[in-house]
Amino acid sequence: MNYVTDELAVSLVKKPVYRVSMEYRSIAEHLAVQYGLCGEEISMKPIGSGHINTTMLLKDSERMLVVQKLNTTVFPEPEKLVENARLIEQHLVGKSGAGAYELGIIKHVPTHSGRFLVEYQGEVWRALEFIGKSYSEDVVDCAVKAQTAAGAFGCFAKALNDFDATKLFPVIPDFHNLAMRIEKLKQVIEQDPVGRVSGCLADIQFCQSQYELAHEVEKAEALLPLRVCHNDTKINNMLFDASTNKAKAVIDLDTCMPGYWLYDFGDMVRTFCSPEQEDSTNLSNVVVRVEIFEAIVKGYIAEVADNLTDAERDSLILGAKVMPLMIGIRFLTDYLDGDHYFATKHDAHNLERARNQFALYQDILRKEPQLKALIN
Ligand code: ADP
Ligand code: GN1
Ligand code: MG
Question: Are 275 and 139 in contact (CB under 8 A)?
Answer without folding.
Answer: yes
